[in-house]
From TrEMBL:
4Fe-4S listed as a keyword: yes
NCBIfam families in the cross-refs: leuC (TIGR00170), PRK05478.1 (NF004016), PRK12466.1 (NF009116)
Organism: Ramlibacter aurantiacus
Source organism superkingdom: Bacteria
Sorted UniProt keywords: 4Fe-4S, Amino-acid biosynthesis, Branched-chain amino acid biosynthesis, Iron, Iron-sulfur, Leucine biosynthesis, Lyase, Metal-binding
Metabolic or biological pathway: Amino-acid biosynthesis; L-leucine biosynthesis; L-leucine from 3-methyl-2-oxobutanoate: step 2/4
Listed Pfam families: Aconitase
Stored InterPro entries: 3-IsopropMal_deHydase_lsu, Acnase/IPM_dHydase_lsu_aba_1/3, Acoase/IPM_deHydtase_lsu_aba, Aconitase_4Fe-4S_BS, Aconitase_4Fe-4S_dom, IPM_dehydratase_rel_enz
Identification of the protein by name: 3-isopropylmalate dehydratase
GO molecular function: 3-isopropylmalate dehydratase activity; 4 iron, 4 sulfur cluster binding; metal ion binding
Gene name of the record: leuC
Enzyme class: lyase
EC number: 4.2.1.33
Length: 470
């Protein structure tokens, strides 16, 4: 196993409380954020007479279950048992809750970096699989299950098996109309959905260095979709500039000291990885998923594959099952496929930069008559900043619904669902059968492509929209 000199190894070594043998270690958890849908972690704590070990390192925000309907999204969310439970638990255990309507409320993977809770060099554990998102800050971040939650709350530590390391070198500059989402969808299409199993992945190379923080979050967010529990980007000036001045980030002399330390984190020039992958992204075309698995992805001008051409019987059956579920035929073009729903949101693509990109496509255009299109900002802060810039007006003038922050239609466990047989372009991260509601047909894509498809009424390359009349 080689991890020597890597960013991952530095982060790991800084947090080992005890070596447990057989490749396992007990790690200190620097930040823990509790979303709703974290089951009965606090109930178990209470039953065993335990306290939260470090309430000052523990934060909470209701995201999965909240209604994002502007009229219903009254801060009380009356009748939502998950919100009521989270409020009662956090009050009892002295944990800071960013409540609905307050700055700091939103999807946990959006708010924790945005509030400066996640810093380079820290460890972050959250009871949600997309915790890998936070690795974009140069933090070691992983999702945990129910059993580990109680352990973290009670001890501020978590047992992890040391993963192997992989570096993904993304060479070249992203072409116009493409973004981090296209990059990661393409990557998963090339490597498959299990290539990351057992690895901590560090994304590097020219294309990654050029990404804004928002793009790095998108990239790391989807690490778990190809099997990697941890995704990382080495912190650099882009990271530090983005972080400076955030509410929980250090300031003054503490900032200077932190910065000097963070600059030591990047991997050494001779760092060794267990696996290296290199992809050139300079000719990337906007990507769209067509099936019910993340590796069923094509450039927008691609055609639906023919299962008959697939030699492997298991793969052939899964291609056919996706074709049937998605209502598609072999050879059909993706470009031009009519859609009824568009969802711009989720912890993958609901940050300010994502909304700016989508708004730039939408400005001066109208949502097609047959389409219901939503924009769901990832946090209350994103919502307020977007409104201060007038982005909400760009969307509502075009006929989009401008919603309140939450997970919303990413997973349809909150009333925000898509009807059976309806076809959607979604900026989220999962396209499993039924993910957006029973029978819903999800195509994952970037905010630019989703916005363009809303206006066209069908899946389209953002550059293929008719010009806006002057
Ligand atoms: C509900 C939660 C446990 C789940 C996850 O861990 O990913 C959700 O966020 C999802 O995206 O499916
Ligand atoms: S936005 Fe979607 S993927 Fe992200 S935490 Fe919520 S449900 Fe999970």
């Amino acid at each position: 196993m080689s991890t020597e000199g890597t960013l991952f190894e530095k982060l790991w070594q800084r947090h080992v409380v005890a070596e447990l043998g057989d490749g396992f270690a007990l790690l200190h958890v620097d930040r823990h954020v509790v979303p709703d849908f974290n089951g009965n972690a606090f109930t178990h704590l209470r039953r065993r007479g335990l306290k939260v070990r470090n309430p000052e390192l523990t934060f909470a925000s209701a995201d999965h279950s909240v209604s994002t309907e502007p009229q219903l999204a009254d801060p009380t969310q009356q009748g939502n048992p998950h919100v009521a439970q989270l409020r009662a638990d956090t009050r009892e255990f002295g944990v800071r809750l960013f409540d609905i309507g307050q700055p700091g409320h939103g999807i946990v993977h959006v708010i924790a970096p945005e509030m400066g809770l996640v810093l380079p060099g820290l460890t972050v554990a959250i009871g949600d699989s997309h915790t890998c998102t936070h690795g974009a800050m140069g933090a070691l971040a992983w999702g945990v299950g129910q059993g580990e939650l109680l352990h973290i709350l009670a001890t501020q530590t978590c047992m992890q098996r040391k993963p192997r390391t992989m570096r993904v070198n993304l060479q070249g500059r992203l072409p116009d109309h493409t973004s981090a989402k296209d990059l990661v969808l393409h990557l998963i299409g090339q490597l498959g959905v299990s290539a990351g199993n057992g690895f901590a992945v560090e994304y590097a190379g020219e294309a990654v260095c050029a990404l804004p923080m928002e793009g790095r979050f998108t990239l790391c967010n989807m690490s778990v979709e190809w099997g990697a529990r941890y995704g990382l980007v080495a912190p650099d000036d882009t990271t530090f500039e983005w972080l400076a001045g955030r509410p929980y980030a250090p300031s003054g002399a503490a900032w200077d000291a932190a910065l000097a330390d963070w600059r030591q984190l990047a991997g050494d020039a001779d760092a060794r990885f267990d696996r290296e992958v290199t992809l050139d992204v300079s000719r990337l075309v906007p990507q769209v998923t067509w099936g019910n698995s993340l590796d069923m992805v094509l450039p927008v001008d691609g055609r639906i594959p023919d299962p008959a051409q697939e030699p492997d019987p298991a793969r052939r059956a899964s291609l056919q099952a996706s074709l049937d579920y998605m209502g598609l035929r072999p050879g059909q073009a993706l470009q031009g496929l009519p859609v009824q729903r568009v969802f711009i949101g989720s912890c993958t693509n609901s940050r300010l930069e994502d909304l700016r990109t989508a708004a730039a496509v939408v400005r001066g255009r109208r949502v097609a008559p047959a389409v219901t299109a939503w924009v769901v900002p990832g946090s209350e802060n994103v919502r307020r900043q977007a409104e201060a810039e007038g982005l909400d007006r760009v969307f509502t003038d075009a006929g989009f619904q401008w919603r309140r922050p939450g997970c919303s239609m990413c997973l349809s466990a909150n009333g925000d669902t898509i009807g059976p047989g309806e076809r959607a372009v979604s900026t989220a991260n999962r396209n499993f059968a039924g993910r957006q509601g029973p029978g819903s047909r999800t195509h994952l894509a970037s905010p630019a492509l989703a916005a363009a498809s809303a206006c066209a009424g069908h899946i389209t390359h953002p550059a293929r929209l008719p010009e806006v009349a002057a």
